[in-house]
Amino acid sequence: MKILVLGGTRFFGVHLVNALVENGHDVTIATRGLTKDSFGEKVNRIVIERTSPDSLANVFGDKYYDVVCDNLAYCSNDVKYLLDNIKCGRYVMTSTASVYDKLHMGITESEFNPHTYELKWCSRMDYPYPEIKRQAECALFQEYSHFEAVAVRFPYVVGEDDYTERLYFYVKSILEENPMHIDCLDEEIPFIKSTEAGQLIAWIVEKDFTGTINGNNTGTITLHEIIDYVEKKTSKKAIYSMTGAEGPYNGVESFNLDTKHANDLGYDFPELREWIYNLLDYYIQINK
């Protein structure tokens, strides 16, 4: 299949592109042309300005793709600008657990319905992140229902290539003896590994279901467990202080995403604890 990927040059987008290429697809990546990639001749490349409807019209006006994988749709206008100017058979959008208003254990896809939520046309800075992502889903399912579309909802994505360094913050702070202010030590936190996120989207590409779908690795872990592990591995002690650097996951409440929908469709998620400690070991190693 001819597949277009927007956001394929870093983080889980790289794993998505690699999986699509390995599966034999004809892959094109669309970027601003600023970030180098390591795909060589395995992919085609197009330069676009994602937030410019004129740029998208000029580039995609006469092109058709069997599937578009969009990791860069942050708001309703992003969806509009792209889908008004491209032809495709299937559209897979990366969404987020942040669309859910109340976080708790076992969140199902039905707890946010983009078909009935009030649609507002907005740009990326118009509302807080959870709301602009809700609006991206609303635009997709309310205004572009003629597309065969899927919105994939992820919790926190982490990996060796995680440019946000949110999880790495805790390891680095312990090793460098920097005080931290953490208010969620014992909350259960869900993650999905960046490689898994890419592989899940590549799997969805070849399926025929539509709608919303949750994706996270099986199980959760607390920051208390993470910090205990790092302390034991390094013989360093975390320094807690109300005036310390704010933990990136501060304010989070225990939650995870119910993945029964994906499981019923045939996708099995590995256990979180099968890989999270290896990732912590990697963070420890690069900080030496």
Q: Summed up, what is this model?
A:
Its EC number is 5.1.3.2. The chain is of the alpha/beta class and 288 residues long. Helix content is 32%, strand content 18%.
Description:
Residues 3-207 form the NAD-dependent epimerase/dehydratase domain. It comes from Vallitalea guaymasensis. Pathway: Carbohydrate metabolism; galactose metabolism. This is UDP-glucose 4-epimerase. Its EC number is 5.1.3.2. With 288 residues, this protein is α/β, with parallel strands linked by helices. It folds into two domains: 2-156 and 192-214, Rossmann fold (3-Layer(aba) Sandwich); 162-191 and 219-257 and 271-286, UDP-galactose 4-epimerase, domain 1. 32% of the residues lie in helices and 18% in strands. It contains nine helices and eleven strands. It has helices at residues 12-22, 53-60, 76-83, 129-143, 166-175, 194-205, 223-234, 260-264, 276-286, and strands at residues 2-6, 26-31, 44-47, 64-70, 87-96, 148-154, 156-158, 180-181, 191-193, 211-214, 245-246. It has a seven-stranded parallel β-sheet with strand order 3-2-1-4-5-6-10, sandwiched between helices. The longest helix has 15 residues, at 129-143. The protein starts with a strand and ends with a helix.
Q: What's the structural blueprint in terms of helices and strands?
A:
Blueprint: E1 2-6, H1 12-22, E2 26-31, E3 44-47, H2 53-60, E4 64-70, H3 76-83, E5 87-96, H4 129-143, E6 148-154, E7 156-158, H5 166-175, E8 180-181, E9 191-193, H6 194-205, E10 211-214, H7 223-234, E11 245-246, H8 260-264, H9 276-286
Parallel strand pairs: 1-2, 1-4, 2-3, 4-5, 5-6, 6-10, 7-9, 8-11
